[in-house]
Amino acid sequence: MIEILSPAEVERGRRTGALVADILQDLRGRAVAGTDLFDIDRWAREMILDAGAVSCYVDYAPSFGRGPFGHYICTSVNDAVLHGLPHARRLVDGDLLSLDLAVSLHGVVADSAISFVVGGSPSPQDAALIAATERALAAGIAAAGPGAYLGDVSHAIGTTLTAAGYRVNTQFGGHGVGSTMHQDPHVANSGRPGRGYRLRPGLLLALEPWVMADTDRLVTDDDGWTLRSATGGRTAHSEHTVAITEDGVEVLTRPSPPRR
Question: Residue limits of the Peptidase M24 domain (predicted)?
């Protein structure tokens, strides 16, 4: 089912999106060499609960995972790209970390992901991976809006990724959000323009391009959740929740401007 939100629900989604964005930026600042992935999960839990919000992950048990997930955030390191299950692992400088967070606040969900290199000095290859997903995300957002087709968004994302030299996996992609985390429509990271569902005001979409350095094939860890590059190559993942409005598209999970 595709859920169309009322203006009041979209306004609540703005508050959820701001919370998700601010938590991710807080965690990014704390994720330094020596930080354990369990620390990141604990900090996420504290901030979610302090805000009166609800985790979308703790009880999440889809058919593709070995559920329930049981944690508050996905922590994917280096060759892990999606659904990284937090575990006892301390970060080191140079690790490429992706954090994916979805919460519900006042009945509306927002979902976002960021990738960055611990220590702040990415290699040219890591910088290119991250930048490609960020450009693809921006292209997908630019292609969205009332009257646009879902295929327009998928095409914009996919052509940006392939132009950067990466293969596109279409097993996992973006999705609708609203009162729950994963809803129709599925937003593939590759598609044909002018095809598919026509976007309407009140629709919330989580757009999430992701790539692996030298493959489009995933393998699953023994934990039943963490998805990795089949070749062991590095990976990156970027995601925003956007709202289709009467006159365009609005990013709900953009971080707040830094305080001066």
Answer: 14-246
Please state which CATH number belongs to domain 7-251.
Answer: 3.90.230.10
246 marked among binding-site residues:
no
Note the Cα 144 to chain centre separation in Å: 17
Strands in 50-107 per DSSP E: 54-55, 74-77, 80-82, 96-105
155 is in an annotated binding site: no
Token readout for 227 is: 């998805």
Three-state helix/strand/coil letters over 24-37:
HHHHHHHCCCCCEH
The answer to whether 71 is a known ligand-binding residue is no
User: Is 114's pLDDT higher than 70?
Assistant: yes
Query: Would the pLDDT of 238 be above 80?
Result: yes
Query: Bridge-partner residues for 219, per DSSP?
Result: 228
Residue 215 is encoded by which pair of tokens?
């493959």
Alpha helices, H only, the chain: 7-30, 37-50, 124-143, 150-163
50 annotated ligand binder: no
Question: pTM score > 0.85 for this model?
Answer: yes
Q: Residue 137, Cα to own-chain centre: how many angstroms?
A: 10
How many C-beta atoms lie closer than 10 Å to residue 228's C-beta?
Answer: 23
Query: What is the C-alpha separation between 57 and 144, in angstroms, rounded?
Result: 27
Residue 239 annotated in ligand binding: yes
Q: Is 111 marked as binding a ligand?
A: yes
The predicted pLDDT at position 253 comes to 98
Q: CB-hemisphere CA count at 13 Å for 229?
A: 22
Cis before 257 (ω within 30): no
What integer best gives the mean pLDDT of the chain? 96
